[in-house]
Amino acid sequence: MSKKFKFKIENEMHDWENQFITGAEVRAIPPGIPASMDLFVKRQGKPGELVENDQKIDLDEPGIEKFYSQVANSTPGI
Question: What average pLDDT does the segment 25-29 reach?
């Protein structure tokens, strides 16, 4: 049985089969995040970081990655 990686999108828990996930893959998980919104990832002890569609996020780092969206061009975490 393969290891499942856990992460959150807007406080909803998800399982993923691979160690890495791209911004585009996160956006595609229902209900989806539209292109008009910026996607961010928050990691334990670090500020929110903008995630590009082709950027790979390592889900095997300590803690649970939390993805969230904000209106494009807004300040992360506000």
Answer: 97
Task: State the average pLDDT over residues 6-25.
Answer: 97
- State pLDDT tens for residues 34-76: 999 999 999 988 899 999 999 999 999 999 999 999 988 766 5
Question: Helix, strand or coil for residue 6?
Answer: strand
2/43 Cα distance (integer angstroms)? 24
φ, ψ (nearest 5 deg) of residue 70: -145, 160
Cα R_g (the chain), whole angstroms = 12
Going by their DSSP bridges, the two strands 37-42 and 65-71 should be labelled as: antiparallel
d(CA 77, CA 70): 9
- CA angle, 28 as apex, 66 and 43 as ends, to 5°? 15
State both tokens at 43: 């990691």
